[in-house]
Structure formats: structure tokens, C-alpha cells
Request: fold
Amino acid sequence: MIIGVAGPFSADTEAARKANLDAMNEAAAKILELGHIPLIGVNAALPVIEKSNIENKYEAIMEISMAVIDRCEAILMIGSSPGADRERDFIKSKGLPVYYSIDEIPIIKNKIC
Reply:
């Protein structure tokens, strides 16, 4: 199953943004260990946004993140934020699972790892 990871990214300091991104990547690593494919929208968005000259970087990040989440079959919420909640609500609107703990995600017997 392709599982998106959603949580807060925006923060007042670069260190706090890094900590938020690290938390999402750590959760994604655990999802991979369970045999699923993890995706994080902000990971796809940041390299592109950093090279762009657009004004509304937040909305661009969200557009890319939502495109990534659209490909997911479930989402793991590791925290709440306006963007993460938007991703969660989108997955819910499609009738797909929303997980709030890594322990809720089923283990695949024939794991990829």
C-alpha cells in the first residue's frame, strides 16, 4: 500500500522545520519496514520550490503535496497542521484509511525489505 505521511512542517526556525521533516521521514522509514511504500509531499515539493522564483511558496508546496497525496492509498498523521489536515481530509473524502499511529498500519507478510 502507498501511504502518505502528514504532519507539521512550517515552523518559526530552520531547526524546528528540520525537526518536523525528520519526524515525517522517521515515520516513513517505519512504514517502509512494515512493507509499504511511504510518500511525503513536502519531500517532493521542497527541492522544486527552493529553485523556483514564485511568490506563494506555501501554496506551491501544498499543490505538490496534494498531488503526491492523491496517489496514496492511506495516510499516517503524525501531527496536525493546516496542511497536514488538508491532506487528511482529502484522503478521508476518498474513503481511504487514515492512521494516527504506526501501530495501526498492517504489516505486509511479503515485505519489500
About this structure: Residues 76 and 102 are 7 Å apart (CA to CA). The two ends are 14 Å apart (CA to CA). The longest strand covers residues 2-6. DSSP finds four helices and four strands in the chain.
